[in-house]
Amino acid sequence: MSDQHGHGHGSRAWRGLRHALAPHSHDSADKTDAALESSSRGLRVLGISFAVLVITAVVQAVIVAFSGSVALLGDTLHNFADALTAIPLAIAFSFGRRAATRRFTYGYGRAEDLAGIVIVLLIAASAGLAGYEAVGRLLQPQDVHALAWVAGAGLIGFIGNELVARYRIKVGREIGSAALVADGLHARTDGFTSLAVLIGAGGAALGFPIADPIVGLAITLAICFVLRDAAREIYHRLMDAVDPALVEQAEQTLRAVPGVLRAGSVRLRWIGHVLHAEVDIRVDHHLSLIEAHAVAVEAEHQLIHHLPRLRAATVHADPDGPEGADHHARLLSHR
């Protein structure tokens, strides 16, 4: 049994007053508004972070041109790749705002996961190119010029990436977007690799020009670690993995609902940056259909209130009894 619930976006006082007067008024229009607002926030984050990272990378590219630093080149390439990840994410957020259809009955939220695959490929490409350039410079060493400018560019890269990382992670966690959080963590690691450019510049200044390509290889290795973490995050989403703590929270919530004798299976999945749930509950077999439905409605209501970013739940109520009865006997051969 399923009923649609959601939360509107007004002032805190208005939300509290509306809930007090009509505690069950959670309609699909409210939920659609919430999802659209989340996507709009994601698009704003992507637009701003894209501009910051492009400006950062362009400044670094100019310095690469006259300094010849391969460490800075690797960092610049990575920053350009990080900026470009905003494009597939922006497309996914925009696509995910489309309404569900008879073919795509759950909507288009999973487009974010597809964007995550593109992000992983971009990170892999930047790692490969940076590593190639670093190895080439090790085999054919070249002097690095304008070391002060190279060091300054590394510092600029750190500041730009850290600002973007904090913004993406904050909003990504607030709206429940794994792809946006992963992209923010990616930007944070980019910031620390930018600081590594300072080490390369310092080594060159002390008479060790080989420090520059070595740092370039270290940056490549750091990118590979980011690649591993991002790939794992996207893999979990594609495989419908959720935090086990959410499942435990859902079970505890169901057990506390009046009329629920036992909580059965709980299945949660992310679709874009919202959660969907399918749960089974056991109710007294003496209840009427209307009474059992009321228990299921209250179960969904409580789940939406207690699970962050849960947009909808399908609650299946099974009669608990009479003793020895198997209400799913006809389905055993199909399971």
UniProtKB/TrEMBL annotation:
Keywords: Cell membrane, Ion transport, Membrane, Transmembrane, Transmembrane helix, Transport. It is found in: Cell membrane. One of its GO terms (molecular function) is zinc efflux antiporter activity. The chain crosses the membrane at residues 45-70, 76-93, 114-132, 144-164, 185-208. One of its GO terms (cellular component) is plasma membrane. Its main location: membrane. It is a multi-pass membrane protein. Pfam families: Cation_efflux, ZT_dimer. Residues 243-319 form the Cation efflux protein cytoplasmic domain. GO terms for biological process: intracellular zinc ion homeostasis. The keyword GTP-binding does not apply. InterPro entries: Cation_efflux, Cation_efflux_CTD, Cation_efflux_CTD_sf, Cation_efflux_TM, Cation_efflux_TMD_sf, CDF_Transporter. Residues 48-239 form the Cation efflux protein transmembrane domain. This is Cation efflux system protein. It comes from Acrocarpospora corrugata.
